[in-house]
Amino acid sequence: MSSRPPIVTILGHVDHGKTSLLDFIRKSSVAAKEHGGITQHIGAYQIEIPQESKSRESEANREIPRQARDDFAVSRKITFIDTPGHVAFEKMRSRGAKVADIAVLVVAADDGIMPQTIEAIKHIQEAKVPLIVAVNKIDLPGINLKVQLEKIKKQLSDREILAEEYGGDVPIVPLSAKTGEGVDKLLETILLVAELNEIKADPNTAVAGVVIEANLDKFKGPVATILVRSGTLKKGDEILIGGVKSKIRGLFDFSGKSVTLVGPSTPVEVLGLEVVPAVGAVLGEEPKAEEDLRQQQTQSLVDKLKQGPAKTLKVIIKADKQGSLEAIQASLEKFNEESQVINFIALGTGDIGEENIKMAATVGAIVIGFNVKVTPTTQKLAENEHVLIRTYNIIYELLEDVEEVVNTLLEVGQLEEVLGKANIIAEFPYGKSDRVAGCRMIGGIIAKGQRIRVIREGTLIGETKLKALRKVKEEVNKVEKGNDCGMLFDPPVDFQTGDVIESFRVI
Ligand code: GDP
Predict the structure, then answer these.
(1) Which atom of ligand 1 is nearest to the CA of 14?
(2) In the predicted model, what is the mean pLDDT of residues 192-210?
(3) Side-by-side strand order, sheet with 267-271
(4) In CATH terms, is domain 416-506 a member of 2.60.120.1140?
(5) pTM flag (> 0.70)
(6) Do domains 2-200 and 289-409 have the same CATH topology?
(7) In this structure, which residue's CA is closest to atom 2 in ligand 1?
(8) Which of 9, 10, 15 to mutate to test ligand 1, by most ligand atoms within 8 A of the CB atom?
């Protein structure tokens, strides 16, 4: 095992400066300075911290054992993930994948703890990752830092986050993502926490990693950003993601440069995948039911798009940054794979303004905002003009909603999957007024509680639910092909002998 760069995620309340901090760190990194800036292509990046700054942090180094310090000297890199912290946590924790090694909780010095700060704290505590609190915006004029810091530490201690001064082990780093003051100290603290937590991996073991972003690119096909946690990922490797085997055709680092292999803690864009994996999917993992469903869903959508004349959804998109805007557009392009469903009327950065609403009203578009605001006047105008505005700060929520709108638009109604089929071969009275359908299963599985449709000569007679199921005299939960059974529906439905019933679910 050797040391690897810590993987850090930044969480906190909206507007407390997460993005500014990530941007500042990236832009002030040595590589960025040497290359005149680095455009980040994926939702993660890595920086390397020059050795000189280490000596300035003698305090930090004193506590580190000698051996660790030597390891430390060779590995002064930090990986930052910039998918919104809580999304990363939720999606990945649900699959048991640990992504971040360290969480940085950003709290604005003027605001203190806010609702999303509390939410972030919950995620961090559940994930049991070491935490550093960055008190941001210390440059704000009129801030009494001492008083605010005390207040924040007190608020944190109420949530069982104990600052070092309170006898705990949570470092509190005051800084400004605007002027950069204190950012060096944060980076040193991250490295120190990483050392103390012995963040290690074996570069020679089987590769393990997790998908932190994925989308279908119009030109490149399925593309995913994978964070390698251990082992080494090489071009040409065959990997299993989300239960599907793919051969890696290309690897690109966060700046878009082609690379042939990557080691632990490195984020990398991977090309050549057979399908778009789910965020949080783990390399080598067998497929999960949930993923199957997701893939089916995308597939059904694509299938639907192949049929019939495509209608289009006109959209105006406003995002906080060019990067987000491009990411959203690229993700939405997946709906345009088969035919043009989404028509991009206008794309821009900045808040949603009255001119956007006017344009939307003229062409019949909807307005989508990402990390941007809508003023009350704009909102009012939109209401008067019957223009729909939706704002998001989580990309996948935006995509999910658009997918839903697209579905409705294409008049596919709901996407349904037939689970089982049976013929009604007899009927029996039941109770005072109910009837039981005597059925012969002809395919699939029908189970209690499922939604049921009655079809007569190809025409839908009614829909109901399966309330009770009997095989001979015995109450059962499900029946399979080849079985005869009695079915009781609730609410009652007007079936007759000769009808076909189908059980189905809505995806
Ligand atoms: P996020 O929502 O947490 O990603 O917050 P942003 O990074 O977008 O920052 C929200 C606002 O606070 C922006 O207007 C930033 O310019 C401002 N901001 C962020 N960090 C600082 C800081 O250290 N000092 C000051 N004065 N403003 C900051």
Answers:
(1) 2
(2) 88
(3) 208-217, 221-230, 267-271, 250-252, 258-259
(4) no
(5) no
(6) yes
(7) 15
(8) 15
